[in-house]
Design a protein that fits this description.
The protein is an alpha/beta fold. It is built from 9 helices and 7 strands. Helix 4 links the parallel strand 1 and strand 2. Helix 7 runs parallel beside helix 9. The longest helix is centred in the middle third of the chain and has 22 residues. The structure holds S-adenosylmethionine. Belongs to the methyltransferase superfamily.
Length: about 250
């Protein structure tokens, strides 16, 4: 029997692939091509206060790397942007979704320079694994930590305190950080899609105090508790998202 229009809509809603709790979309890069995202990055900022490493090793972390497409392109971008210095650029991507990490590993174009691990960034296991990764490269911190389109999911699932904890952890591991925050409108969309799919809202949404302008709150956290300073903020990309680029202040 054919479903009526209303029933069809209902079943669409139940199966909406965008009704998701952690942003672990399966076909994300069909809608947000990685190459276009990298075009937004400035070229001359990546080695600002870097103490030249004897072996010219440059290490990056991509938090919430999804299926790895953006991580692959970021590594090539950094290698190209610093080509004068010819560093050895290695990146590690972490994501909490095992299926996405499997996809990232299967298609990994540079296994000797790109590593993928399935971990929740807020877990102690993740911190330990990242510190071991750095130790192998003989480094204390990552030259850059990328947090593209992940802050909203952390904020919705872990609240205001969780967002601050997330940024603190990322900054502790970083000399430079790149954050691409989602707008408050995206928070409302994510909540609406869960509710429409009858999956239950984000329990902490109503308790959030950092509402309406997430980018401002993120900049306040980066400057305040994290003690970082602004390098630059890019213009919005075609879906309106800007990149906040901050760095560790030099030690006095
Ligand atoms: C919207 S996607 C963004 C993917 C990628 N950063 C980009 O912008 O192209 C957000 C990703 O963050 C991951 N994620 C969410 N919370 C996480 C956490 N606590 N630890 C690790 N990954 C997380 C999700 O699984 C998802 O793949």
């Amino acid at each position: 029997m054919k479903e009526s229009g209303a029933d069809e809509r209902k079943s669409d809603e139940r199966t909406d692939p965008g009704a998701i709790r952690h942003g672990n979309f399966m076909n994300y890069y069909q809608f947000h091509p990685a190459e276009e995202r990298v075009r937004q990055l400035p070229r001359g900022v990546w080695q600002r206060q870097r103490v030249a490493h004897p072996a010219r090793k440059y290490a990056g972390l991509d938090v919430g790397c999804n299926a790895g497409d953006l991580t692959y392109v970021l590594r090539d971008f950094l290698e190209e942007a610093m080509s004068q210095d010819r560093p050895e650029v290695s990146l590690i991507g972490v994501d909490l979704d095992p299926v996405l990490i499997e996809k990232a590993r299967e298609r990994n174009p540079r296994p000797e320079r790109l590593t993928f691990e399935c971990l929740d960034f807020l877990s102690e296991d993740c911190d330990g694994m990242l510190r071991r990764y750095l130790a192998k490269l003989d480094k204390a911190r990552f030259d850059v930590v990328f947090c593209f389109s992940i802050t909203m999911w952390i904020h919705l699932n872990h609240g205001d305190g969780g967002l601050e904890e997330f940024l603190r952890r990322a900054c502790e591991l970083a000399d430079m950080i790149v954050v691409e925050p989602q707008s408050w409108r995206c928070y409302r969309n994510a909540s609406r899609r869960l509710r429409r799919a009858k999956l239950g809202d984000f329990p902490l949404l109503k308790e959030l105090k950092y509402t309406s302008d997430p980018m401002k709150h993120i900049e306040d956290i980066l400057r305040g508790p994290c003690g970082f300073r602004r390098v630059t903020v890019t213009a919005g990309n075609e879906w309106g998202r800007m990149l906040l680029i901050y760095e560790r202040k030099p030690e006095e």
